[in-house]
Amino acid sequence: NAGVMQNPRHLVRRRGQEARLRCSPMKGHSHVYWYRQLPEEGLKFMVYLQKENIIDESGMPKERFSAEFPKEGPSILRIQQVVRGDSAAYFCASSAGTGRTEAFFGQGTRLTVV
Amino acid sequence: GESVGLHLPTLSVQEGDNSIINCAYSNSASDYFIWYKQESGKGPQFIIDIRSNMDKRQGQRVTVLLNKTVKHLSLQIAATQPGDSAVYFCAETINQAGTALIFGKGTTLSVSS
Question: Residue B109 — φ and ψ, nearest 5°?
Fold first, then answer.
C-alpha cells in the first residue's frame, strides 16, 4: 500500500511561470490537505479538499493559487505567475476521514523560483 | 490570534536520556492534537495523537500529556536515541469540523551519543 505520493520532488520555475504540484493520496483516502512550509518555519495550512470539492480554503492566498481534486487522478495545487516568495516546500497529506483522524504526509515538493 | 507554539526551538540531549518537548495552544475549542516528527528533507510523520477527553496517552517509547486547564501539550520520549533527532511539531484542529490542522514552528531535537 503506497503512501502519499507527491511529484515532482523538486521544481524550479522562473518568475512569472506556472507551477503545478501533484498529490496522489493513499489508497482508500478521499481527503486531501495541502500545506506550505517556509525555511525554518512550521507548516501552514492552505486548503482541504474531498473528491471534486473544496471544503476549506481559508489558508489559500486570494490570488494566483488554486487547488483541485478531480474524481479521477491526483490532487493538483496550481500556482500561477510564481514569485520568489512562493519558494517553499509544499506538503500534501491525506486521510480517510475528517481532521480528527490520522493524516499521512507525502515527501513534499520543493519549489524554487529563480 | 489563535496559535500553536512550542516553548523551545531546540533541545539537546544525551543518548539514553528522556526528552520532553512542550507545546502551548490558545484555542480552547481544540479537541484533537497530534505530534509529528519531521526529519530533514522528509514529510512529517505521525507519532501519537490525543483527544481532549484524555489527559495522557502512551505509545512505544512516547507519551503525550494534555493539560486543558493551562492549554499545554507535551511529548515525552523515553530512552532517546540518535534516530530520534528531528524537528517535532504539535498540531491541533482549528475548527469544529476538524477539517484542518495548525502547526507550531517546531522543536529541533538533537541527540548526541
Answer: -100, 125
